[in-house]
Structure formats: C-alpha cells, structure tokens
Amino acid sequence: MNRRFAALLVAVVVCAGVELTAGRGMSPHAVWDVLGGGGGMTERHILWQLRLPRTLVALGAGASLAVAGLVLQSALRNPLAGPEVTGVTPGAVLGAVTATALGLAGWESPMAVVLAACAGGCSGALLLWLLAGRTGGDPAQTAVHGVLVSAVLGGLTAMVLLVEPGELGSVVQWLVGTTEGRVWEHWHLLWPWALAWGAAAWLLAAPLTLLRCGDEIAEAAGLAARPARTLALLCAVALTAGAVAAVGALGFVGLLVPHLATALFGADLRAALPGAALLGAVVVCGADAAAQLSSRLLPRVLDTDRITLPVGALTACLGAVLLLAVVRRAPGRTF
Q: Are 72 and 81 a contacting pair, CB within 8 Å?
C-alpha cells in the first residue's frame, strides 16, 4: 500500500515536470536554465507566471474530480455514478456560464462563479434524484437518466449562449474543459476550496465505506445512512463545482479514476480517497502534458500554424472507453 502511494507521488512529480517543460514558447533546456536561477525575463515569466500555475491547477482539478467521483459512486452504490453522468458537471457548467452571462465572472468576485457552479451542480443532482427516485435504480437506469439530465442542462446552457452570444468565447473553456491560460488567480481560487471539501470528504471516509455495503448494514453498525449520504453528496457537488469553475468540464475524470483507485487500494475509502486524489492529479496533469506536447507536434504534421488540443478532449476519450467497459461488465446488461 505504501509503495503504491509512493509510486503515485513519483508519478505526480514526473507529470508535473513534463508539463513544465512541454508546450510552445520555451524549450526544455530554457526551463532547466530558469530552474537553476538563470534565464531571461521572458523565460522566467513563462515558467513562474504561466506554466507553474497551470500545472498546479491541473493537479488540483484532477484530484477534486476524482475524489468527487469516488464519493458519488460510494454514496449511491453505483459504479456508473460520476459528476459527468449524474448531472453535477453539466449543472455546474450551466451555473458558471450563467454567472458569466450576468457579468459575475470577474476576478474581483471569483467566488460568485464557484457559488453559481455549486448551485448548478446541486440542481443537476436534484433533477437526477427526482427522475431516478430515492433508491437510485439499477446502475444502467441511473446512467440513462443521467444522460437525459445532462442533455436538458446542456440545452439550457445553449439557450444562455443564444441570449448572450457575445460571451461564447469566454465560456468555451467550461464547455470543453481546458487548462489553457490558467494563472495564479485560478490556483488561489481552487486550492482552499478543494482542500476544505477534500478534507470533509476524507472525514466521511468511514461512513462512505459502510454505505458501500448497503443501508441495512450501515444502519446496523449505528450509522444514520440518509444524513451521511446527504453530506457526502454535498461534498461531491462542491468539489465538482470548484473544479468546473477553475478548468471547466473535464470529461469523465470523475468516472475513470475511482475505478482505478478502488482496484489499487481496495474498498476502504480511508486509503482509496487519497489514492483517488493522487490518481486524478496524475491523469489530468499527464493528459494536459500530452495535449501541450501535441500542440508542438501536430502543427508540423498537419502543416498549420497553431493547433491547441484541450485536455478535456483527451480525458473524455479515455473516460468514454472506460464507461463502455464498465457498462458491458455490469450484471444483467441487455446489450
């Protein structure tokens, strides 16, 4: 167990190092020169004011989404639950887009975006709850309802953009999910929120582990299942909202990583939650590093001046493959 945590910590450092040296405008040699105390003013600005905060935001957003996904899957006892397919992420995107359209997205009031995203995420989760029922139904049914809820919320987001078409450029980051242009303001917005709600989720690790075994067993052990589940869902929504407000809708990170975490660390969430946080940081940071490397290689291959691949596109592709694998392995599937 300790070796696995150590390996993940090493992977985090490696992915962060690759992301710091990837991208355009600065060679890896220049990065090492700046790290050694040299380099010009431009190189120091690129590294310390652009690349470093972008790397930290990728790590923090990945950890937040992974923990949120594991909390949702444990609280709902559904391997298909995740911020992306339970209405939480599209609801948070709707809240962030609406806040932007209303002119509340300036950095003089950054918490307005987080609160709007949190309200949207709660609304999405509530809508799914009303459709699927309090029991949540079987995993496949919940996933279908989640797709319907996501479609409805996506339609509402499109309506907001039609009302305020001038805001399209500023909200694409939330629709796709990207770390492009993230600076220290984004990191200062993300880390206190993620730390507070992540700590709250970890304090709920033992109750969540009992909830994974079923309400009857949890209540037999003296746990009030419904209040514990409500608190857990609140933590998941808040973590998702913070990540969405910082980087947008990174596709399927909250669905992909929890399965990897439980496979590596078991069903005891006292170990699986920190493991999921590290895995989420590795996945998002690694995907972002790959996206930056592709932005240097693809223009040469396709003979074009500039191509920017958003990290959300990579995580969505990986998550879609995992979602298909999980659904096909689900008992009683009909396809």
A: yes
Token reading at 261: 């975490």
Give me Rg for the CA atoms of the chain.
20
* C-alpha span between 238 and 240 (Å, rounded): 5
42-87 pLDDT per residue, tens: 888 889 999 999 999 999 999 999 999 999 999 888 887 888 877 8
Fold topology of 56-329: ABC transporter involved in vitamin B12 uptake, BtuC (1.10.3470)
Q: Are 46 and 106 in contact (CB under 8 A)?
A: no
Token pair of 323 as six digits: 């979602």
Model confidence, pTM: 0.87
- Helices in 102-138 by DSSP H: which ranges? 111-132
Cα–Cα dist 29/22, whole Å: 11
Residues 6+ apart with CB under 8 A from 197: 64, 235, 238, 239, 242
